[in-house]
Amino acid sequence: MSILGMCMLIGDGILTPAISVLSAIQGLRGPFPSVRNSVVEALSAVILIGLFLLQKYGTSKVSFLFSPIMAAWTFTTPIIGLYSIVHYYPGIFKAISPHYIVRFFLRNKKEGWRMLGGTVLCITGAEAMFADLGHFSKKGIQIAFLSSIYPSLVLTYAGQTAYLINNVNDFSDGFYKFVPRPVYWPMFIIATLAAIVASQSLISATFSVIKQSVVLDYFPRVKVVHTSQHKEGEVYSPETNYILMVLCVSVVLGFGAGNAIGNAFGVVVIMVMLITTVMLTLVMIIIWRTPPVLVALYFVPFVVMEGSYVSAVFTKIPEGGWLPFAVSIILAMVMFGWYYGRQRKTEYEIANKVTVERLGELLAKPEVQRVPGLCFFYSNIQDGLTPIVGHYIKNMSSLHAVTVFVTLRYLLVAKVDERERVLVARLGPDGVYGCTVQYGYADSLSGGDLTAQVTGSLRRHFGTAEAGAEEAARLEAARTNGVVHVRGKMRFYVGEDAGWFDKVMLGFYEFLHGICRSALPALGTPLQQRVEIGMLYKV
């Protein structure tokens, strides 16, 4: 369910920029009815391409513009709404009474239920509010929403409704039609800029959720760049960005200004909300241990309300609503294939990991030689060593005189203190050490000399006693004889006797593994010192 929700959110990241910018640019057709749809679509595509090309600079570079734009949008639209209420229908707020919606459903029956699908677009954006937590505090978001955003939306929608009651035929373009002529062009500019900011929020949300999925090993590894030294949530992924750009522009040019894109958008938004409700309920029960009565008070009203909307928007699937499901199915296949492969690999590594005792047994064999030099052997297992170590020693019958097994650990902090960056320990066999390199999202591992950092930490660990001096001398001699950085690469060998499911899923995983980035971050080690060792695991 969480994979489906994430895939839907990525679909949201494709559709929000497309529909937001497209609907804003359609305002050109008000004063100039002769402007063709193709012109509106082309202008929207150009704006979207520009927006995606700016992503690599990070939101912090342009975020100083967001507040004035959103303030202008938040405070001008309700003013126009108030003007429209006074001018067209002062009694509009009686629509808040449940009496009218009950009459509406009694009168329209099935058709009234189908119309619910159209109202979903009024609440879009709320499903991506989590992305704001990467930039602002929870209290700040609550204050902004309750003091400005919510009152602004209510007054704006009330004003549009008041206008439409007296101008029923203008429902296809209710926003621009209710804007008074003297302020039309200023509102067009504000609406276009606000649409770009709204697009940015979903693009940022997509980057954020992709990054979290990569960390949790649910998504193939893509490059994730932290664009802020201070905010962990401000991230950018080049591959994700350009795929989103291509899909966004394709949606604009393929669907155009018709109802299909709105139908697709409605399906995505309400599905994300329903899945969020179910997942939050599980969190309340399993993690927060919330009393069942309170869980029911939250779950029942929201599921009934969102379930009604979901059932209504599902009728729109043949009319454009199929798009997010198509995107989600493809993404879910990618995620499930990757997750299945990673789980099988992890199970094998844990079952066949090399313990310190086993390492001592391997090195004690008479045929195993200790060759001169310093070796950094990268292992991704916290408790033990990767099976590739055993594979290497058995086949090469050797290990370097000084071998450091390095594990990289990513921490959710900006920078790790220099004193805590490199942690070292003896592993038992002579000349064999364990090392954990900790780094934060703003740390650059490629900028410094990792070899110097680790050897410096080892010297401090040895101390100044006679035994420590001997170890330090051996370390320096090994470094003089040459340094090598060894990375293991374990691949699946899917034999003929494997089941069809494994053949398909692991074959797909191997394809994804071949085109995605390395699990190790860029360490800046010289090319001539790098060695990769492959190992086949027969399924």
From TrEMBL:
Location within or outside the cell: Membrane
Annotated K+ potassium transporter C-terminal domain residues: 372-538
Taxonomic lineage: Eukaryota, Viridiplantae, Streptophyta, Embryophyta, Tracheophyta
Keywords assigned: Ion transport, Membrane, Potassium, Potassium transport, Transmembrane, Transmembrane helix, Transport
Molecular-function GO term, any one: potassium ion transmembrane transporter activity
InterPro entries registered for this protein in UniProt: K+_transporter, K_trans_C, K_trans_N
Family: Belongs to the HAK/KUP transporter (TC 2.A.72.3) family.
Occurrences of domain K+ potassium transporter integral membrane (ranges): 2-359
KW Ion transport (keyword) present: yes
Topology versus the membrane: Multi-pass membrane protein
Transmembrane helix in keyword set: yes
Pfam families noted in UniProt: K_trans (PF02705), K_trans_C (PF22776)
Transmembrane segments annotated in the record for this chain: 34-54, 66-89, 112-131, 143-163, 183-203, 242-261, 267-288, 295-315, 321-340
One Gene Ontology CC term in the entry: membrane
Protein name: Potassium transporter
